[in-house]
Amino acid sequence: MNADMTVGTKPTExxxxxALQPHFRTLRLGTPFQPRVEALSSRQEWYDWAGYKxxxxxxxxxxxxxxxxxxxxxxxxxxxxKYRIEGPDAEGFLDRLTLRDVTKLRPGRVHYTAWCDDDxxxxxxxxxxxxxxxxxxxxxQERHLPWLLDSAIGFGVEIEEETEEIAALALxxxxxxxxxxxxxxxxxxxxxxxxxxxxxxxxxEVTISRTGFTGDLGYEIFVNAGHxxxxxxxxxxxxxxxxxxxxGYAALNRARIEAGFIVANADFVTAEHALRSDRVRMPDxxxxxxxxxxxxxxxxxxxxxxxxxxxxxxxxxxxxxxxEGNVPAEHAIVYHNAKREVGLVSAAIWSPTAKRNIAIASLxxxxxxxxxxxxxxxxxxxxELQYIKMMKRAKIVPRPxxxxxxxxxxxxxxx
Amino acid sequence: MTxxxxxxxxxxxxxxxxxxxxxxAFLGRVGRKVLVLEAEEQIGGAxxxxxxxxxxxxSMAHLLNRLHPEVVKALELEKHGLDLxxxxxxxxxxxxxxxxxxxxxxxxxxxxxGADASEKQAWAEVRAQLxxxxxxxxxxxxxxxxxxxxxxxxxxxxxAMTGLSLKRLGREDMRDFLRVLLMNVADFCxxxxxxxRLKGLLAFDAVLGSHLGPRSPTSLLGLYYRLxxxxxxxxxxxxxxxxxxxxxxxxxxxxxxxxxxxIRTSAVAAKVFVEKGRATGVMLDSGEDIRAGKVISAxxxxxTFLELVGPQHLDTGFVRRVSNIRMKGDAAKLHLxxxxxxxxxxxxxxxxxxxxxxxxxxxxxxxxxxxxxxxxFSPEPAMEITLPSIGDPSLAPTGASVLSATxxxxxxxxxxxxxxxxPKLLEAVLSVLERHAPGIRKTILHSELLxxxxxxxxxxxxxxxxxxxxxxxxxxxxxxPVFGAEGYHTPLPxxxxxxxxxxxxxxxFGVPGMNAARRVLGGRA
Lengths: 415, 525
Fold this sequence. Notes:
The complex is a heterodimer of chains A (415) and B (525).
Chain A: H1 3-6, H2 11-19, H3 34-40, E1 45-49, E2 52-57, H4 61-70, E3 72-76, E4 81-86, H5 90-97, E5 109-116, E6 122-130, E7 135-140, H6 145-151, E8 158-161, E9 166-172, H7 176-183, E10 196-201, E11 204-209, E12 218-224, H8 228-238, E13 244-246, H9 249-259, H10 302-310, E14 316-323, E15 333-336, E16 340-351, E17 356-364, E18 375-382, E19 387-397, H11 405-408
Parallel strand pairs in A: 3-13
Antiparallel strand pairs in A: 1-2, 3-9, 4-7, 4-8, 5-6, 6-7, 9-12, 10-11, 11-12, 14-17, 14-19, 15-16, 15-18, 16-17, 18-19
Helix pairs in contact in A: 4-9, 7-8
Chain B: E1 9-14, H1 18-29, E2 34-37, E3 49-53, E4 56-59, H2 69-74, E5 92-94, E6 102-105, E7 111-113, H3 117-137, H4 153-164, H5 171-180, H6 185-192, H7 196-207, H8 220-227, E8 230-231, E9 234-235, H9 245-258, E10 262-264, E11 269-275, E12 278-284, E13 289-297, H10 301-309, H11 316-323, E14 331-338, E15 355-358, H12 362-369, E16 382-386, H13 388-391, E17 401-408, H14 418-436, E18 444-450, H15 452-459, E19 495-497, H16 511-521
Parallel strand pairs in B: 1-2, 1-13, 2-10, 5-15, 13-19
Antiparallel strand pairs in B: 3-4, 5-6, 6-7, 8-9, 11-12, 12-13, 14-17, 14-18, 15-16, 16-17
Helix pairs in contact in B: 1-9, 1-16, 6-7, 7-8, 7-12
């Protein structure tokens, strides 16, 4: 601190001021579950998720992945940005804000949606929870409070960020419902995909939805931060015999690629992050065109999207690729006729469940239609300080890359 | 409720102020079926003449100095009763409480009385320069602002070059034009003039109606805006209309009616109908539903978009820009009913019909501005006074007089609130008047002081701002009223803007209305 600034200031005042400014002392905040996650992190491999300390791997990426597909995996999603949106005009507000028709979203249901700026460029995608007629929760990757507040001009609605107050867990995998049953959460067996329910926990109501980012049977649970640890303990106690495991993002990322989900600022650049004017994307360009509901009233970006469609649509298309061989093509350049550069892979893995080499890529429109022949990806594999350069055949395939019947079976299967 | 007849209008114009009427008249003249909706009983907006005391009539807008010649000519306003004859053109007098007044005769000081010879010479040069530069800006203030969307760089610069007619200037003059363009008026005046009264007058004229002091950057633009106006072919001329500005409004009304326009008064628009993403008509507060092919709003842009259309039909970024238009008025209006014609210190009899300005120096105006930055008014306000009943005795009972004064500054958001502040401002204004016209207070029969809050309520001008948006560099040209609605068409197909909130701006000008009509006829959706 500059010495001049402290002249005449009492030490107690300085201490008080410092206490009000913790943000630069703790560059990565812990979530309400941090003591439990920390204890399970034998690898201590962390990454930064929206200012929170989040695990990339806890003990073994491979085994964590298989916890998702064969057991019950717990992923701390507390850093996910959450907004409480409430008021008589909440429905109208969200209908104007987002692409899908919110009037069709019933209380007790969730839908996956996205929202755009005036130019029809995607600001973010996320899940919208309708908790009652007039109360919603919007969950997403990026922060949007100024945009939401400005969008609220003229609407009777209150908006509050509740990221810190609400802790959240994703419980995903074939035994996830068995864990809930053993933990004593009655009613959860009736939840169909995208349903919202509640169960009691320490005298409080906990919100649970049958949603997730894995393409598997799974749930997301939202609890007040103060009850986070006891909820964690309750689930892990109940899950002992069902193989419950905490996981990091690396494992989850594999599952989400298999499920064909995209990640903002990984598979596309959001409008407020893009520095280069050609990096912004309309919904049609990132596979979210299905959300655009032209049967409803006006929504942000509608005129721009309609105009773009009238002019032939976006310049790029986001597609699923299947690539020959077994070397992941992460960030590989996509070629046509092995010569002409036509796109880029944004995410790629060898899929253990599909037993295929899969990728998500953005391609120039001409080459992004299903059935495009003669697509290639150039993979650089570092092998003992030398790149092995491979040209591999690729073809456009539908997403998701895996379809698991247990994802939608209701009631869910017991283990 | 639906309208009684099945009339379908080609266009409905909301707002029967001068711009709404001008727009309607231009459309009517080419055969469009047009309806004008005016919320008040009288058309004319801030230009209407009202009786503020028994037998005393006055207009909020008391001077005419920029009604555009194209509007006058195309709508044949003179045929419809507009009187621009030089007889009504008036000089400007810079009053002085102690010394002699300075008198600018002819169109904005073609002659200068009361100054010494060297100052007369200096003024002739400065005046010529001001008009030369204002002339360059004139085309910019007449046509539609350039669009950044639809033009490539070459086209835009070609537009700018033609628009600015820079080529007409010599190299040195061009350099100087660009140098002084965004200067403040105080520094500009100090470069060429000596006389405090003259500099005070120019400073006052530059900032009149805006929230700027003479030393605020860009304040010179306001003077160019003033001098780009002309009347009867005389740049800078001004007149106090016979019959009040309401008579001018009546001429515009006649022109509109002659063009087949239907005018409805006491018809308050409550809502613009939007169907399938298009503006399709207007709902009145009575519930009556009026359908039209085009909806043209001559109201304030914020009122239009936020209240009549509603944010649900617009994009968030656009709504954000509209919400941020700066339009907090900083001027009040005083109307006095006087027993007799007041006698101002040193004012020769033949100049009582003049525009009288109390702004004895640049410092006087700047000091008047200082408190306004902090939500207060000055105990020494600057003001512009006319005695309209001199030129038109019908505005007051025989022997009596109307005094009309625009008071600069009076911040819209007064810190103490206008309920408490208004009597104090009146007292301050009357003290200043008393000093310049001793005995005037004893002759006051009635006074009406309109604060920006009153102007807002009475004339439906948000912020009480007569330009419907600060007329400063950041809210001019393609940034007026906001990007996305700068070309008179709006993001909502079928909806157009025609009011002073649009380029080029306010005053009894008529250009926004004329340009809007051209835009509508230009085939824009």
